[in-house]
Design brief:
The chain has 13 helices and 13 strands. The chain has 358 residues and is of the alpha/beta class. The protein folds into 2 domains: 20-30 and 258-349, Aspartate Aminotransferase, domain 1 (Alpha-Beta Complex), CATH 3.90.1150.10; 37-253, 3-Layer(aba) Sandwich (Aspartate Aminotransferase, domain 2). It starts with 5 loop residues before the first helix and ends in a 9-residue tail after the last helix.
């Protein structure tokens, strides 16, 4: 009988809870106000002929490369960062290899790496979710062929120092090192271009978060121009749809819109963290557009009470070390005000007590 490969049969299944999302969606780290009006204007201009043609990726890659300050030969546009991770694993891993990931983190690193038949080794973050540099370095062996690191990390919002990441890449020259900067805009620090001195380093970016293009699915995988063509070999020439390619330059052109949104998210992040401190709720300082907090045994009651007030938040209890934890996305100023109002009502309802003055 026909069967899938053993490595595929044994994979965990990722089921994002996308259904029934009525309310203020603070559960998926999406842009909460939508894309730039310039993107919508470009969408209205798209012709039937453009839709009928196979999409041409290279001209837009040149635009993105110029925006990022890298060479067009150093990047590949992908169908979201998910495809970037998939192509990365398929290029550099095979059965018998080892891949290292720090947990908790984005689930697709493990899924795509394990699908190749490689052995995935998980390295737990420190108790405060800080980056486990020593433990990770101790797991590197001659069989290590891939290390994936989200920076900032999801779901914790924690970051690793740039020098630490470069040290890892230098100490594992036989391994491909992916630094996933999906939340870069909310953090502001990048390793773009560092592959010119550390050639086994790669950086991923997305336009799903700050840019509000999650529905169009556009990501970037960037790295040394000796390696990107190898990844491109297994990429479909039409992997990014024509509508996304038409709209991406318009999104990049409106940096004022993006900057205003990022400023509001960063301010809202501070306000949310202050509110957690006021109520004695344990949280982890974040450099992303969300905050992870622990509600312990009250977690389910908290999620349901917030939903009853029209606020969706994400249960992260199944992630390593995150039992009782909830992740809350931060939106614009108006949405943050709504969030904080609902949060105070909910905390009172579930029996929390204020421990600090406003």
């Amino acid at each position: 009988m026909l069967e899938a490969r053993e490595s595929v049969r044994n994979l965990p299944t990722y089921h994002p809870p996308l259904g029934g999302r009525a309310g203020l969606r603070l559960d998926f780290n999406e842009n909460t106000v939508g894309c730039s009006p310039r993107v919508l204007a470009r969408l209205r201009e798209i012709t039937a002929e453009e839709i009928a043609c196979y999409p041409e990726r290279e001209p837009v890659e040149t635009v993105v490369a110029d925006f990022l300050g890298v060479k067009p030969t150093e990047l590949l546009l992908t169908n979201g960062v998910d495809e970037a991770i998939h192509l990365f694993c398929e290029t550099f891993l095979q059965s018998g290899d080892e891949a290292l990931i720090v947990v908790p983190t984005f689930a697709m690193y493990e899924i795509f790496a394990a699908a190749t038949g490689a052995r995935v080794i998980t390295v737990p973050a420190e108790k405060d979710f800080s980056f486990p540099t020593s433990d990770l370095l101790s797991q590197i062996t001659p069989r290590t062929r891939l290390i994936a690191i989200a920076n900032p990390n999801n779901p914790t919002g924690s970051v690793a120092d740039a020098n630490t990441l470069l040290e890892i890449a230098r100490l594992a020259p036989q391994a491909a090192i992916l630094v996933d900067e999906a939340y870069f805009e909310f953090y502001g620090k990048t390793l773009l271009g560092q592959w010119r001195s550390v050639p086994n380093l790669f950086v991923a970016r997305t336009f799903s978060k700050a840019y509000g293009l999650a529905g169009l699915r556009v990501g970037v995988l960037a790295g040394n121009d000796a390696h990107i063509p190898m990844i491109n070999k297994i990429s479909s020439p039409y992997n990014v749809n024509g509508v996304a390619l038409a709209c991406l330059p318009a999104a990049l052109d409106d940096q004022d819109y993006i900057g205003q949104y990022i400023d509001q998210v960063q301010q809202g992040r501070k306000e949310l963290q202050r509110e957690f401190a006021r109520w004695g709720i344990r949280y982890w300082p974040s450099q992303a557009n969300f905050v992870l907090a622990s509600f312990g045994p009250s977690k389910s009651a908290f999620i349901q009470s917030m939903r009853s007030r029209g606020i969706l938040v994400r249960d992260r209890s199944r992630d390593h070390g995150c039992e009782g934890c909830v992740r809350i996305t931060v939106g614009n100023a108006e949405q943050t005000a709504c969030l904080l109002f609902a949060l105070r009502e909910t905390l009172t309802e579930i029996g929390a007590k204020e421990v600090a003055a406003k």
